């Protein structure tokens, strides 16, 4: 009896318990979904870029993951998407990682609040995300690229400047707001349509993992 007590005491002294976090930042389901969402972002972004449309649609995967698995999963998806684009397309795209973080975080918060349970809520969430993303991206575009890019937004900036005679900075800000005001609600509507067709059991499984 006494020897057993001594052995237990030695175990406590020599092998103190290692505290583990209460839960992992990202669930296994989220980790499985993120690569597919990144691929979706890249595919939609490539199509829109090729067509020179005044939208992006390269955040649909980020928003979808954020709604299903929480803000942190959305942030990781956005960071990975922009990092891949920075490696494959242009290093300048690394500078837009803060915009991806804003989108992922706000989409996750909107999903937690239940905004994506209705079409109107999804559009409202898209408008909020769009304004925040526009303010963040306009600063980056002006600082790094003088307000002009080779995308559809850059063409819109030129058109606004030519039409209204405003400065490049002002035209870039207006173009960013207009573009994101169209892009993010459209992206959120696409996510809403996906969620509507997602089996209830699968959607609940993701939400439990993110909780």
What features would you highlight for this structure?
211 residues, mainly alpha, Arp2/3 complex 21 kDa subunit ARPC3, globular
Count of DSSP helices? 9
**How large is the radius of gyration?**
22 Å
Low-confidence stretches: 9-23
Counted beta strands: 0
The arrangement of helices and strands along the chain is HHHHHHHHH
**Overall structural domain count:** 1
Please give the largest β-sheet. Answer: none
What's the end-to-end separation, in Å?
Answer: 45 Å
Mean pLDDT, to the nearest integer, reads 81
What percent strand?
Answer: under 5%
Quaternary structure classification: single chain
CATH architecture: Orthogonal Bundle
CATH class label:
Mainly Alpha
What general outline do the C-alpha atoms trace?
globular
What CATH calls the topology is Arp2/3 complex 21 kDa subunit ARPC3
What is the SS-derived class? mainly alpha
């Amino acid at each position: 009896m006494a020897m057993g007590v001594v052995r237990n005491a030695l175990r406590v002294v020599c092998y103190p318990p290692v505290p583990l976090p209460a839960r992992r930042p990202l669930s296994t389901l989220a980790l499985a979904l993120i690569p597919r969402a990144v691929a979706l972002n890249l595919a939609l972004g490539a199509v829109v870029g090729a067509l020179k449309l005044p939208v992006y649609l390269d955040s649909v995967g980020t928003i979808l993951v954020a709604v299903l698995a929480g803000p942190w999963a959305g942030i990781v998806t956005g960071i990975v998407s922009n990092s891949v684009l920075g490696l494959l397309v242009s290093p300048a795209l690394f500078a837009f990682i803060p915009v991806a973080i804003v989108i992922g975080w706000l989409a996750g918060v909107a999903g937690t609040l239940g905004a994506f349970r209705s079409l109107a809520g999804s559009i409202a969430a898209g408008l909020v995300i769009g304004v925040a993303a526009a303010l963040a991206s306009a600063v980056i575009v002006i600082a790094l690229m003088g307000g002009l890019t080779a995308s559809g937004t850059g063409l819109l900036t030129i058109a606004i400047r030519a039409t209204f005679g405003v400065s490049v900075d002002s035209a870039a800000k207006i173009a960013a707001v207009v573009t994101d005001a169209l892009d993010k609600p459209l992206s959120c509507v696409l996510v809403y349509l996906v969620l509507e067709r997602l089996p209830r059991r699968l959607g609940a499984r993701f939400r439990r993992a993110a909780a």
